[in-house]
Amino acid sequence: MAPFSIRRLNSCDAEAYREVRLDGLLKHPEAFGASYDDEAGRPLAVTAERLDGGFVLGAFDRGEKLMGVAGLAIPTAVKARHKGTLWGMYVLPEARGSGLSRLLVDGIIAEARGRVERLLLTVVLSNAAALNLYRNAGFVEYGLEQRALRVDDAYFDEMLMALPL
Predict the structure, then answer these.
(1) What is d(CA 122, CA 138) in angstroms, rounded to the nearest whole number?
(2) Is residue 102 in some structural domain?
């Protein structure tokens, strides 16, 4: 496994985060609810605010290049704050197969443990590698949303997964 450092991102990381996020949205539009055009059109200041106000982990290589990201969202509503969502998981192609994805997932699980009872995620059904990653981390399927996302004229189903904490 290549050495990576994992840490919470903040507004100082906004430019690097945006670059990685846009890479994912451009190369894998079927894997994200957000669109490249929407994200690319947002001012960098909005991205910086989102990083300071939320919880996003970043994985950096030895040269301090951001290689992957994953977010944790916990609702503030009283009736929903017992569950969190792992969102926005993306690793640059050159870091895939290095164990980095599992480090990010484990980091999100560690942050969620003790804060929520269940950690949820959705993953496009055609992404076998991601499904395998999440299953190996202990997530189990609890539903399938057919035609969850539409990219141009193609529809994509999403597997709903949960990890009890």
Answers:
(1) 14
(2) yes
